[in-house]
Amino acid sequence: MKIPSELPDIIPVFPLSGALLLPRSRLPLNIFERRYLVMLDDVLKTEHRLIGMIQPKPAACPGGEGSVYSIGCAGRVTQISETEDGRYLITLTGISRYRFVEEVEGFFPYRRAKVSWEEFNHDMRPPGKDEEFDRSGFMKLLSRFLKAVELQTDWGSLEETEDELLINSLSIILGFDPKDKQALLEAASLCRRRETLTTLMEYFLRGGGDDKTMQ
User: FRET label pair with 209: which of 125, 145, 156, 184, CA 20 to 30 Å apart?
Assistant: First the structure.
């Protein structure tokens, strides 16, 4: 997928709790609120077609209601279809994480932000290798975890999935708490994300989580 080499300093942001987008991963979205329909129309007119996914902070967190975490991930609209009732079903493909610098005021019904890409330059390079990945041990842990939460999967497909796609896909689809999703997003490398994901599954299996944690 080709995108312009210069990423914009200002992008529309879509605060959505529990929604995780990672570089080179895909996130399906159902767009139906008017402000986000307007946002999508505006995004499709741009060269980059970028939407910045970001998680809102819980009201109890420092900053209070309405604030967002400082790190999000921008995705390019790569698929779109319109439903008969006026909704849009879109797919975002992750391009790069970004740091939320400040809110940009303006006559827009949706939020926009000035962002910095600098510390995440490696997100647009080929994925690094996780040399310490014990795939066999990880798959055994995953099997125990999925059984505990009563989920089934296609093990044949998982066995054939490349390391980054496997770790990122599980980080996205497993219904961990939003703060845990944020930790997965902010992991500095694939190795750190795999370690975080492993810790979360082990914690759950030790009784640290319950069915309310998993969505």
Answer: 156
